Amino acid sequence: MDVEEYNAERAVLVAALVDLFLKLFRPLRAPQIQPPEWAHLLDVLYPSVVQTRIKVAELSRRFYDSQREIAFPDQPRHDTILPHYEPAWFREAMEPARRALSQPGASDGALSQGALRVAKEAENAGRRTILRAVDSDPVVKGWARVATGRETCGFCMMLVSRGPVYFTAEDAGLDLDDTSAADLWQLAESGDEDAKVAMDQMMKRWHPGCDCAIVPVFDTRKWPGRDAWKEAERAWIKHTSGTRGRDALNAFRRAIDNGALNPRDFAVAA
Fold first, then answer.
1. Mean pLDDT score, 135-157
2. Given Cys at both, which of 93, 100, 166, 232 links 142, Cβ 3.0 to 4.6 Å?
3. Backbone dihedral region of 105: left (phi > 0), alpha (psi from -120 to 50 degrees) or beta?
């Protein structure tokens, strides 16, 4: 299985879950929405979320295995545990959507944000499956974040341009806004070791709507997305020349917004 096939199958699974969310929650608008009703609908949706997460995790497992077999055809399969998911975690993840939909005059935009949060919960099952395998597999070199080009924002492109992560820190669950993330980037560029660790943790953060994929890196000279990473790296250097930290991220975003950069040009899993 190559990365294009992986991403296409993953997108189909997630899209079906998003459609179900929209059917259940589209009728909800303030002031009709009440906490008991919201909780009931989350309970109705939760089994489908779990089933989609299992399918996405199993798909990601197959993708990992296929990439590993290409690099190490004689090695036995490396086992890993698929990620678990609790109802309380789902309720917590969806709380911002509840607040948005509870506002007077809540728009379709608020509903869309809720759909993006549901998609993120499903997508993360695949991401964490690959990260867990990387953390425990003795033959893998690391992992990399790759762009699809469909929903790739400037912040994600910045992380894509960083390339492979060759060591993994404990996932401390950093919840950083773009400003503090850019400041960390600046520190990491300056050689600050603590910031480098924090940046590796930040590479594991996924905003609602993010459809970046994760690929394992078994051979540093050849992995899915390597050419796109080098192009993204060159683009980052070109469009952020003379800037640092927050200013660099803003400059990179402007290049995307004004059409000087097209994230699709760096997509490996569209």
1. 82
2. 166
3. left
Q: Average model confidence (pLDDT) for the chain?
A: 81
**Residue 62 backbone phi and psi in degrees, to 5:** -65, -40
pLDDT at 186: 58
Q: Give the pLDDT score at 172.
A: 32
Triad 133, 137, 138: Cα angle to 5°? 165
| CB neighbour list of residue 165: distance below 8 Å, 6 or more residues apart | 142, 143, 144, 200, 203
* Mean predicted confidence (pLDDT) in 221-235: 87
Q: Name residue 102's beta-bridge partners.
A: none
> For residues 26 and 106, is the Cβ–Cβ distance under 8 A?
no
Please state the separation of Cα 261 from the chain's center in Å.
Answer: 21
Q: CA 15: distance to chain centroid?
A: 15
Cα–Cα distance, 43 to 47 (Å, whole number)? 8
* CA distance between the termini of the chain: 15
Which CB contacts under 8 angstroms, 24+ apart, belong to 248-253? 248/182, 248/185, 248/186, 249/154, 249/155, 249/158, 249/178, 249/181, 249/182, 249/185, 252/154, 252/157, 252/158, 253/153, 253/154, 253/155
The domain limits of the chain are: 1-140, 142-270
Residues in contact with 103: Cβ distance below 8 Å, sequence separation at least 6, in sequence order:
30, 110
- Residue 193 to residue 115: CA distance in whole angstroms: 37
